[in-house]
């Protein structure tokens, strides 16, 4: 009988330990998959508003185009080129001349998304290569109604590195457009809240 008592006591201790671990695990599950964080833990300081101005060079012609058609329009006689998809890796410069100082690249695609008017779905990253913003990106996803508006506004939906948690909007204004080649220079003014 003396040997049974230590075995029962050992089993009881093991049972209590397992129970306490399972309670810890279950209570951890009850928190769910999301939790509130203090922004200081991520190194986030005071939020600021910044304005960026640069020129986007969409070059479809020549030996080294920066934009290429990857999907043809559904109907070439359509005035809106509905269905056309173009990928681009366009230079971003401080001035409207391509020889101006380059500050980054615009990388993404635009797709003709309207059957009634000239309007594109724009999906792009502004990947900066200059100064403290080198390696940081801003992401724009939205409608570019280039056929009906002089100034087009698209949302900035996020970013990376210095632009984590970024939000804002980008205004696009056509500086020049060559109707023969399709080459365009677009001025962008981007207003962004970021940390």
UniProtKB/TrEMBL annotation:
Transmembrane segments: none annotated. Keywords: Apoplast, Secreted, Signal. Residues 1-28 form the signal peptide. GO terms for cellular component: apoplast. GO terms for biological process: phenylpropanoid biosynthetic process. It is found in: Secreted, Extracellular space, Apoplast. Its main location: secreted. InterPro entries: Allene_oxi_cyc_Dirigent (IPR044859), Dirigent (IPR004265). The keyword Signal applies. Belongs to the plant dirigent protein family. Homodimer. Dirigent proteins impart stereoselectivity on the phenoxy radical-coupling reaction, yielding optically active lignans from two molecules of coniferyl alcohol in the biosynthesis of lignans, flavonolignans, and alkaloids and thus plays a central role in plant secondary metabolism. This is Dirigent protein.
């Amino acid at each position: 009988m003396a040997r049974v008592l230590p075995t029962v006591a050992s089993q009881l201790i093991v049972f209590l330990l397992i129970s306490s671990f399972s309670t810890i695990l279950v209570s951890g599950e009850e928190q769910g998959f999301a939790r509130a964080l203090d922004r200081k833990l991520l190194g986030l300081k005071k939020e600021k508003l910044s304005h960026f101005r640069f020129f986007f060079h969409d070059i479809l012609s020549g030996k080294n185009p920066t934009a290429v058609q990857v999907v043809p329009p559904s109907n070439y006689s359509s005035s809106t080129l509905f269905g056309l998809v173009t990928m681009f890796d366009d230079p971003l410069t401080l001035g409207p001349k391509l020889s101006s100082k380059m500050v980054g690249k615009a990388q993404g695609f635009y797709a003709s998304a309207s059957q009634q008017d000239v309007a594109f779905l724009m999906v792009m990253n502004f990947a900066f290569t200059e100064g403290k913003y080198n390696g940081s990106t801003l992401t724009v996803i939205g409608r570019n109604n280039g056929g009906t508006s002089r100034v087009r506004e698209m949302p900035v939906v996020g970013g990376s590195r210095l632009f984590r948690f970024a939000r804002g909007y980008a205004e696009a204004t056509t500086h020049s457009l060559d109707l023969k080649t399709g080459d365009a220079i677009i001025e962008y003014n981007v207003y962004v809240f970021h940390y």
